[in-house]
Amino acid sequence: MAVKELNQTEQAAVLMLAIGMDRAAQIFKHMNRREVQILGTTMANIEEITPEMVDQVVEDIIIAVKSRTSLGMDTDSYIRTVLISALGPDKANSILDRILQGGSTRGIEQLKWMDSRAIADMIRLEHPQIMATILSLMDSDQAAEVIMFLPDNMRSDLIMRIATMKGVQPSALRELDEIMEKQLTGSENVKATTLGGIDAAANILNYMEGSSSDLVMSEISELRAELAQEIQDKMFVFEDIATMSATDMQGLLREIATGQLLLALRGASQDLKEKVFNNMSRRAAEILRDDLEASPPARVSDVEAAQKEILSVVRRMVDSGEIKLGGGDGGRDAYI
Fold it and tell me: Which family does the record assign (predicted)?
């Protein structure tokens, strides 16, 4: 690959492979799941890194990079070590399945760049199990968007299929790969990977609009009450933030913009508001109280959007081990 042919993602991948595991891990911590997967996949697919590539990408720090270079190493091992260091084993392994084993699911990777409505239109006539598999391969927020563009009567069935999915055999993924090849650009052979499950279903529901999520859960409860309870146990809502310890709450508040917090608290209980106030400086808490009282009415959809953005921060921090839910006064012990 010539230097001039490198796109921005490939340049970033060269840099990550050149700066060493520890530094790369620190950078990954500041990326979201989709960014990690895209960059990790690119790192895994780079066949050769030349000195010219490094010179172009690193520029002013070329001497430091060459002294700590990771060039010529086993990239699979490198990526595995970096991701586990950055994200923890649970989160990293699910991404590693897609990068190192599922790197050949390129049709799915192309879906990640498509409009959610277009994806829904493309898959709506497929067998429900194929649809569920495709949704399981997506990030939870994107899968939730796609489901919202599918007919109401499909949603609960798809969530149940995702929740009860124990894994996908190579033959099934090859079939899916062939379908994607017909509709997109095709792919190569596919290796087995673990998809779906209760966690995947719960995460997708967490990203769906509140009313739609409630309706899906209600339908699943009527059909399979035990399954619905298992999914519900894995879900968390904005009010669950109140179960954090004081230390974890303070850590979370440092990561949230004041305006975002102000909007999200418009729909919060008084108990949660007090938990937030108690973990701020006296002056900051007074200002936030005054702003809450003086701020004009906000649309429910805007409040829910702000809460979901904060929950995304919570997920990231929980996955990285920075905080946990259920660590506060009388909170639940479960991790998410």
Answer: Belongs to the FliG family.
d(CA 213, CA 232): 11
Residue 168, beta-bridge partner list:
193
Same fold, 3-103 and 107-234: yes
At residue 132, the 3 state secondary structure works out as helix
From the number of C-beta atoms within 10 Å of its C-beta (0-12, 13-18, 19+), residue 223 rates as: exposed
Report the predicted TM-score, pTM, of the whole model to 2 decimal places.
0.42
Which two three-digit tokens encode residue 66? 């060459």
What are 112's two structure tokens? 């990640």
Give tens-digit pLDDT for 49-74.
776 777 666 553 444 444 444 555 55
Domain 107-234 belongs to what topology? Annexin V; domain 1 (1.10.220)
- CA-CA distance, 134 to 119, in Å (whole number)? 10
Three-class DSSP category at 193 = strand
Q: Which of 217, 205, 224 is nearest to 164 (CA)?
A: 224
Out of 2.70.50, 1.10.220, 3.80.30, 3.30.310, which CATH number does the structure's domain 3-103 have? 1.10.220
Q: Which of 85, 2, 6 is nearest to 15 (CA)?
A: 6
β-bridge mates for residue 193, sequence order: 168
Measure the CA angle with vertex 201, ends 92 and 310; round to 5°.
70
Taking CA atoms, 46 is separated from 40, 43, 98, 258, in Å, by 10, 5, 16, 41
Length of the chain in terms of residues written: 336
Return the pLDDT at 193: 47
Q: Are 17 and 80 in contact (CB under 8 A)?
A: no
